[in-house]
Design a protein that fits this description.
Layout: H1 3-27, H2 33-62, H3 69-72, H4 75-93, H5 97-151, H6 158-180, H7 187-203, H8 209-241, H9 244-375, H10 381-401, H11 403-432, E1 440-442, H12 444-454, H13 456-461, E2 464-469, E3 476-478, H14 480-496, E4 506-516, E5 519-526, H15 556-566, E6 570-576, E7 580-588
Parallel strand pairs: 2-4
Antiparallel strand pairs: 1-3, 4-5, 5-7, 6-7
Helix pairs in contact: 1-9, 2-4, 2-8, 2-9, 4-5, 5-6, 5-8, 5-9, 6-7, 9-10, 9-11, 11-12, 12-14, 14-15
Length: 603
C-alpha cells in the first residue's frame, strides 16, 4: 500500500472511531430528571386543579353551590399550566423525536378536551349571568306589581286583592324554592309554578292595563329563569362528561412510560459505550506501543540520517570545490596572460631603472671620495677642487637629464603593475578557496567590479564591451565570495554566448537599482544569441547543459540558484533568441544566513 493511501486509510479509520464514540456519548447523555420532575409537578397541579374544578362543577350541578364564579375561576391558572407543560415538554423531549411525537399527540388530545371544557365554562358563565339578572329582577318586579295593585284597591273588592296577593305569594314562594334547589329535576315544583302562574294571570283580570303589563314582565322573567336553569343544568351535565382528568392521567402515564423507555435504552447504550471504551483503550494502548516503537526507530534513523547528511555536506563541499578547481583550470591560461602583461611591464620598468642608476652610482662614489679628501690632513686642495668640479658636472647632468623624476615615474608604474598582479591573484585566491560562508556587509557594485577583473581575459577573447548602469544600491548582508561567484558565472556565460565574428558590438550591461525599500535588484544583460524557448525552463536544473560533452557539467546555474535562494532572494531569466538574455537577481538587504554553496564558472 502506498504511503499516501495508507495515511488516508488511517485517517478514515480514526475518524470512524471518533464518530462512533460521539454517537455512543450522545446516546448515553444524561436524562434531565429534574426537568421531568417539573413536568410531573405541572401535571400534578393540573390534576389537582382539574379535580377541584370538577368538584365545583358537581356542587353547582347538585345545587350545593349557588356561586357560579368558582366554576369559572380556575380558567386562567389552567391556561398558564397548560402552556407551561407544552414548553417544558418541548425543552426536555424535543431531542427524542419518536417520544416527543407520541407525547405531543396526547398533549394535543388533552388540549382539545380542555378547550371544549373551557368553551362550556364560558357558555355557563353567560347563562349564569342571564339567570342572575332574571333572579334578581323577580322580587323587584313583584314589588312593583304589588304596589300598583294596592293603588287600585279603592275601586276593587277585597276578595280580588286577596286572590291576587295569594297567587303572587304562592308563585314567589315556588320560585324561591326552585332557586334554592338548583340542579334538581323536580317536575311537581315546576307544575305548581305553572299553576300559580295561571292563578296570577286570572287574578289580574280586574286590574288596570298597567298592572297587566307589569304582571307580563314578571312572568317573562320567570320563564327566562326556568329556561336558563334548564340550560345551566345541561351545561353542567356536559361539563361532567368532559374527562380532562383522564386525559391528564393518560398524559402522566405516557411521560412515565417514555422516561422508563429512555432510561432502559440509556442502560443499553451505556453498556455498549463501556465495551467500546475498553476496545478503544486497547487500540490506543496498541497504538501507543507502536508509536513508542516508531519513535525509537525514528531516532535511530535520524541519527543515521544526520551522519549521512554531514557526510553529504562534506562531499558536497568537496564536489563543489572540485568543480571550482576544474573551472579554474580552464581559466588559468587566460589569467596567466592577464598576469603576464603587468609582469612584463614591471620587468621593463626595472630594466630602465637599472640603467638610470649608473650615473647616480658614479655621483655617489665621487661624493664619498670628496668627503674623504676633506677629512685628510693635510688637505690636497688641488684634488679637492678637481673632485668638486666632477661632482658638480655629474650632478648637473643628472638634474638636466631628469633622472630622479624618471626614476620616480618608473617606480610608480612598477607599483601599479604589481598592484594589478596582486588584485588578480587575490581574486583567484577568493575563487579557489573552500568557502565556509563568511557573512558580512558588502556592495554588489564593488562585487561586480571585482568580478570583471577576474573575467577580463574571457571578455577580451570574445570582444565584449562592458556597460555599467549602477544605481547606487546600498550594501547588503550576505556572503561576498558566494555572490561574487554567481556574478562571475553569469558574466562568463554571457561572454561565451557572444558570437566572436559578427559586425555588431558584443555588449554586457550591468545594472543595479532598488526593487523596493528592502530589496536590491541586479541585472546582467547581454545581446548574445539568446536561449531557445524549449531550453529556458531547464536552465536551473542540475546537470543540464547545452555544451558538448567534456565542456560543461550543468552545475553552474543550478548552484547559482541555490546560493541566491539561500540568501532569501530570487533569480529570474528572460531571453529572446537573436536578441539577448537578461538574468535578474533580487537580494534582500538583510539576508538570512546563507547555506554552504559555491559556483563554478561553467554551464
Amino acid at each position: 500500500m502506498k504511503s499516501g493511501t495508507r495515511t488516508i486509510a488511517i485517517a478514515i479509520f480514526a475518524a470512524t472511531l471518533i464518530v462512533i464514540l460521539g454517537v455512543l456519548v450522545m446516546k448515553t447523555r444524561a436524562f434531565d430528571i429534574n426537568a421531568q420532575n417539573e413536568i410531573n409537578n405541572t401535571l400534578r397541579d393540573l390534576r389537582q386543579l382539574d379535580s377541584e374544578w370538577d368538584v365545583d362543577v358537581l356542587r353547582a350541578k347538585i345545587g350545593l353551590s349557588s356561586n357560579y364564579d368558582r366554576v369559572a375561576s380556575p380558567l386562567a391558572r389552567i391556561t398558564t399550566l397548560k402552556d407551561s407543560l407544552a414548553a417544558q415538554s418541548a425543552a426536555l423531549w424535543g431531542d427524542y423525536s419518536d417520544s416527543y411525537a407520541r407525547l405531543t399527540s396526547l398533549t394535543t388530545a388533552y388540549s382539545k378536551l380542555m378547550d371544549d371544557k373551557i368553551s362550556l365554562i364560558e357558555q355557563f358563565k353567560s347563562q349564569n349571568a342571564i339567570l342572575r339578572n332574571s333572579s334578581h329582577y323577580l322580587p323587584v318586579a313583584a314589588s312593583e306589581l304589588a304596589v300598583t295593585v294596592r293603588s287600585e284597591d279603592i275601586l276593587l273588592r277585597n276578595s280580588n286583592r286577596a286572590e291576587f296577593e295569594s297567587a303572587l305569594n304562592n308563585l314567589l314562594t315556588d320560585l324561591a324554592e326552585f332557586e334554592g334547589v338548583t340542579g334538581v329535576a323536580d317536575a311537581t315544583l315546576r307544575d305548581r309554578i305553572t299553576t300559580h302562574s295561571a292563578d296570577l294571570v286570572r287574578s289580574m283580570e280586574p286590574f288596570s292595563q298597567e298592572a297587566h303589563m307589569q304582571a307580563t314582565t314578571l312572568l317573562t322573567h320567570m320563564q327566562t329563569l326556568l329556561k336558563q336553569q334548564d340550560i345551566g343544568e345541561q351545561l353542567l351535565t356536559d361539563l361532567g362528561k368532559v374527562d380532562t382528568l383522564g386525559a391528564i392521567n393518560a398524559l402522566g402515564n405516557a411521560y412515565n412510560q417514555e422516561q422508563a423507555g429512555i432510561l432502559t435504552e440509556q442502560q443499553f447504550w451505556l453498556r455498549a459505550l463501556i465495551i467500546y471504551s475498553v476496545i478503544l483503550l486497547l487500540l490506543l494502548t496498541y497504538a501507543g506501543w507502536r508509536i513508542v516503537r516508531s519513535i525509537r526507530l525514528l531516532n535511530q534513523s535520524n541519527t543515521a540520517l544526520g551522519k549521512a547528511y554531514r557526510d553529504l555536506q562534506e562531499s558536497q563541499v568537496q564536489l563543489i570545490q572540485s568543480e571550482k578547481m576544474s573551472g579554474l583550470g580552464r581559466m588559468v591560461a587566460g589569467v596567466a596572460h592577464e598576469i603576464n602583461t603587468p609582469l612584463a611591464y614591471v620587468s621593463g620598468t626595472l630594466s630602465v631603472l637599472q640603467d638610470q642608476l649608473a650615473p647616480l652610482g658614479k655621483l655617489t662614489t665621487l661624493v664619498h671620495d670628496f668627503i674623504g679628501l676633506l677629512r685628510s690632513k693635510p688637505q690636497d686642495k688641488t684634488a679637492v677642487n678637481k673632485t668638486l668640479l666632477e661632482i658638480e658636472a655629474d650632478a648637473t647632468a643628472v638634474t638636466e637629464q631628469g633622472v630622479l623624476t624618471e626614476i620616480d615615474t618608473l617606480l610608480k608604474d612598477g607599483m601599479h603593475g604589481i598592484d594589478q598582479i596582486s588584485e588578480i591573484v587575490l581574486n583567484l585566491k577568493n575563487f579557489s578557496r573552500v568557502d565556509r560562508v563568511q557573512v558580512s556587509n558588502f556592495s554588489v557594485e564593488a562585487g561586480l567590479d571585482s568580478t570583471l577583473v577576474l573575467a577580463n581575459n574571457v571578455l577580451k577573447t570574445h570582444d565584449v564591451a562592458i556597460h555599467k548602469n549602477y544605481g547606487g544600491a546600498p550594501t547588503i548582508n550576505g556572503s561576498p565570495s558566494q555572490i561574487n561567484q554567481v556574478f562571475l558565472n553569469l558574466i562568463t556565460n554571457a561572454a561565451q554566448a557572444m558570437p566572436a565574428d559578427r559586425e555588431e558590438q558584443n555588449v554586457i550591461t550591468l545594472s543595479t537599482s532598488m526593487e523596493d525599500h528592502d530589496t536590491v535588484r541586479i541585472e546582467i544583460e547581454d545581446n548574445g544569441a539568446g536561449i531557445p524557448k524549449d531550453v529556458l525552463p531547464n536552465v536551473f536544473d542540475p546537470f543540464f547543459t547545452t555544451k558538448p560533452i567534456g565542456e560543461g557539467t550543468g552545475m553552474g546555474l543550478s548552484i547559482c540558484f541555490q546560493i541566491i535562494e539561500a540568501h532569501g532572494g530570487r533569480i529570474q531569466v528572460d531571453s529572446e533568441q537573436d536578441v539577448g538574455t537578461i538574468f535578474t537577481i533580487l537580494l534582500p538587504i538583510k539576508a538570512a544566513q546563507p547555506t554552504q554553496a559555491a559556483v563554478v564558472s561553467d554551464d
